[in-house]
Amino acid sequence: MSESPLKLFVAALLIAVGLSFGGYFIGQGFIEGRLNDRFVTVRGLAETEVQANLAIWPMRFVATGNNLAEVHAQLTADANKIVQFFVRHGLPENSIELQSLEVTDLLAQAYRSGPLDSRFILTQILVARTENVDLIAAASQKVSELVDVGVVLSAEYGSSGPVYLFTGLNDVKPEMIAEATVNARLAAEQFAADAGSRLGGIRRATQGLFQILPRDNAPDTMEHKQINKTLRVVTTVEYYLTE
């Protein structure tokens, strides 16, 4: 038995009304969700100047000749001269370490060509390590003393001078992160004021990488060659905005 026209009309009307209310609530939920997602992204910078607390000076020195025993004796004598150089400038012997010895026999090289002035090349690395960075810095100004006594420093490694490191990053991290976060909030508050809004809570926050930079950022300046350095961190914070 078919439905009467009146019943069909009422049913269609109820469905239409239901769809209208459903669409209204869905639309309101979307609008409210968008309002709750109003936020600003800001970055906060913190910088501080620090001094290196560790100096490492690797020296690579060379001796050459045609008699292996004589070349080795020369290398040993040069090592003693370098040790005495450091001791003379205030570094204790227990902070000086001899490392890898390399022996090259040019006659044993398969692709050698031409005459040889010296058959054997012996190289060794001596490393001085100390927390007294000023002592190493002062000694580096006197390295010509080694040249004067016949020590041949290799240009391939170590003769360019000491390396200065800062190892106290964990000690300054909390304070720098706090400062960067404060600076980020100040920027967000200014943005909110300019936009006629109020600053809400934090939506998301990320800490950037800590950078150790040369204090004097001149061209071709390397951070590890400077005693004085600049630490930098940038935090990124998202704040909600409210009316």
Short summary:
One of its GO terms (biological process) is DNA damage response. The chain is an alpha+beta fold and 243 residues long. 38% of the residues lie in helices and 33% in strands.
Descriptors for this entry?
243 residues; alpha+beta; Translation Initiation Factor IF3; Alpha-Beta Plaits; five-stranded antiparallel beta sheet; four-stranded antiparallel beta sheet; 5 helices
The end-to-end span amounts to: 59 Å
Low-confidence sequence ranges: 16-35
Question: How many β-strands, per DSSP?
Answer: 9
Order of helices and strands: HEEHEEHHEEHEEE
User: Given this structure, which CATH class of the largest domain is correct?
Assistant: Alpha Beta
Structure classification: alpha+beta
Question: β content, as a range?
Answer: 25-35%
How does CATH name the architecture of the largest domain? 2-Layer Sandwich
At the third CATH level, what is the topology name of the largest domain?
Answer: Alpha-Beta Plaits
Give the full name of the CATH homologous superfamily of the largest domain: Protein of unknown function (DUF541), domain 2
Binned, the helix content reads 25-40%
Rounded radius of gyration (Å): 36 Å
Overall 3D geometry? elongated
So how many helices? 5
The overall number of domains is 2
Overall pLDDT: 85
Largest sheet: 5 strands, antiparallel
Organism: Desulfonatronum thiosulfatophilum
InterPro entries: 26kDa_periplasmic_antigen, SIMPL/DUF541, UCP029033
Protein name: SIMPL domain-containing protein
Pfam family, one: SIMPL
